[in-house]
């Protein structure tokens, strides 16, 4: 096979309902938050069943580069080892270079952490990482008194020089391009001398669920956070308690598997669906119901059964769930509009453009709007679905390919950003949709 052929993954296709129980790896957002917190905690911490993927590996490597010790130890997670983290010694300085890859959590969360150390830390990443918004991180660092050398374009690469402490206090930012700007500062704010009083001024902050998750994990490790005033967050100075906890499975990444139930009129079960989670993926329960599925959560297992058709819907603020939602809407029996997701243009790729282009390449009728997509049902056909190094484009292509024969997903390996096991888990799921062989002996 030539490399070109290898780069096109024939998406599994089935004409019969899938019937599967699926477990997915740990949450990217929780793993990378807890890694940051562990590196600043007051003792050794353990992450059980963390995500082991490109984004978490980049975070682990960044923390090691800054001086934290991160070791893999055997655990009971189905997808890899546990992680033991011995925190950074902030009194030890030094110069370092951080590779952010394409990970928003690394490029936004690590700079304020590095600013607490003495020395120069430079940040760079994949070619497309150099197009993701970073201006607010840079201006926030400067607002905190940290020296930053950059090109003035508000993008990677840049270099900061820390003095060994950050005074903190009041800081005003515009976080309208990414909630990660807020999370990044909140995660380390307790270690600023005077804590942090952060205020957002500007168009609305997107992905508010992810900020709620940040506040939730901070409180879980003993940090006092006041988020009672909209667009303001106060983090009291203090210790970050070391922890030993289990990372929930990634509910956003559970999405494509649940979507398979709708696409094939089958049933998909996800056991260990967390109770009272802060993950945005908990919204699948409402979203998939609106799209016409039967959804139930009983004894910790989420069960989704697809109906005869997928219903179109008008959905706001679907955040990182949007590519999966868009794929489902492209297979629906009535039009859909997705709104409140303008900031997806700054994700791994311009997701609004990428989704419209690739679904339309398969015969779809998708229009970009200022803050989302309009998706009108149209008969789809096979073809190459390009993914632009975006894991969620790859999984969206797989969903379409399950329903439409002849879809080839470009670079399925990009799913390693948050779910290296995707191709194999997806093939197992699709195989449950094959007609059951009743056996030759009957
Ligand atoms: O904090 C996080 O873990 C994330 C926040 C969100 O970023 P944006 O606010 O940039 O959408 C989300 O899309 C991303 O996948 C993960
Ligand atoms: C936007 C995403 O990632 P990142 O953490 O790189 O921003 C995502 O995973 O959908």
TrEMBL record:
Q: NCBIfam families, per this entry?
A: aroA
User: What does the sequence similarity comment in the record state about its family?
Assistant: Belongs to the EPSP synthase family.
Stored Pfam families = EPSP_synthase (PF00275)
Write out the catalysed reaction: 3-phosphoshikimate + phosphoenolpyruvate = 5-O-(1-carboxyvinyl)-3-phosphoshikimate + phosphate
- What is the protein name for this chain? 3-phosphoshikimate 1-carboxyvinyltransferase
Q: What's this chain's function?
A: Catalyzes the transfer of the enolpyruvyl moiety of phosphoenolpyruvate (PEP) to the 5-hydroxyl of shikimate-3-phosphate (S3P) to produce enolpyruvyl shikimate-3-phosphate and inorganic phosphate.
Major location (coarse): cytoplasm
What EC designation does it have? 2.5.1.19
Q: Which residues bind phosphoenolpyruvate?
A: 28, 104, 132, 180, 351, 392, 417
SUPFAM superfamilies from the xrefs?
EPT/RTPC-like (SSF55205)
Domain Enolpyruvate transferase, first and last residues per copy: 15-424
Q: Which GO terms describe its molecular function?
A: 3-phosphoshikimate 1-carboxyvinyltransferase activity
Q: Which PANTHER family match?
A: AROM/DEHYDROQUINATE SYNTHASE, PENTAFUNCTIONAL AROM POLYPEPTIDE
- The record places the active site at 320 (proton acceptor)
Q: EC class of this enzyme?
A: transferase
Q: Which domain of life is it from?
A: Bacteria
Keyword line:
Amino-acid biosynthesis, Aromatic amino acid biosynthesis, Cytoplasm, Transferase
What metabolic or biological pathway is this protein involved in?
Metabolic intermediate biosynthesis; chorismate biosynthesis; chorismate from D-erythrose 4-phosphate and phosphoenolpyruvate: step 6/7
Q: Any idea which positions bind 3-phosphoshikimate? A: 28-29, 33, 178-180, 207, 320, 347
